[in-house]
Predict the structure.
Amino acid sequence: MPSGRQVAESVFELLLVELVCTARAQHGDDADKAVQSLTTLGNSVGSRLVEKVALDRARFVSTLDIVKFVCKELWNEAFGKQVDNLRTNHRGVFVLIDNKFRYLRHISPLDARSYAVYTAFACGLIAGALGALGLPCQVTAEVTACPATTFTVKLEEAKA
Amino acid sequence: VYKRQEYGNKLNVGQTVVFAMSKLAKIGDQAWNGNTEKINAELFILTYGALVSQALKEHESVADVNAFLEQTGYNIGLRLVDEFLARSGIGRCGDWKETADVIAKVGFKMFLGVSAQVVGFDSEKKEFSLVLDDNPLTEFVELPDDAGELIYCNVLCGVLRGALEMVQMSVECTYVRCTLRGDDASEIKIVLKEILADSIPAGED
């Protein structure tokens, strides 16, 4: 799958903005449905993207190994940098902090609850990637101080 | 190598026109290499593919999906053109021919990293086609058997329509050939419908 081909980042950003607009237009007042629609899109992209990124990699040895991979290699590919901070409660919950989340860089500060539709695709992407690597999970995001974003990953099977 | 027959026999072309083409290609290359923030294409290609798949599930007919993809492109084109003008430094095009060349050599290059060729330029009918030997959108894409009349890349037609409308040109874009359908190249036909009046108040230049 790797092709070395590149495109301007702006075309991807514009596509994302358009995806959000479409989801909102389609689901009107139902923000949850819009979020769900974008999350599903992200799932599909994440599960395929991670295949490419993990291609020549050695086998993962642990759950933490997989999550770290997502925080570094996958994050680089999808979000242009690595996660800044990773924490876990060792009971299947991981907290990933990106201080300068790429997809929010052109979004003006909003009410905290309004970011969901802008982070939904990314949450889906992360969940899709983790799922494809054997860790089905739910991913949510909270934007504390835009563009700093905190992603919470809850694994479906609590594994240490 | 710039094919002189691209310009047709009607035009009285000389060295200057060939120079202009290579100058545009250079502008395109410079913009791509110099001031374009780039990402690996996979993310973009996969996202677009997911969008098409989702649209196929959510729309009644393939015709609706095609229209949706075109409209999506249109909205993107409206926003894209500002960046195009800013990063390319290209001002108003002198004529329709220059517009064609700019789109092919600068526009496509700056955003998708590939150049297109202008073919079939007809100054009377105000039309031309853009031919892409290499279309990033279709990489690794295979249309399902029941795709019917799906125009997978219709978004590109919309982008062109939206972008050109922002610079006062109303055009009709049609995707006439597609590698996904077994054609040897991708081709978009662009016809100029009308020049839109500038919204400049009377009395000003």
Summary: The first strand of chain B starts at residue 38 and ends at 40. Residues 4 and 18 of chain B are 8 Å apart (CA to CA).
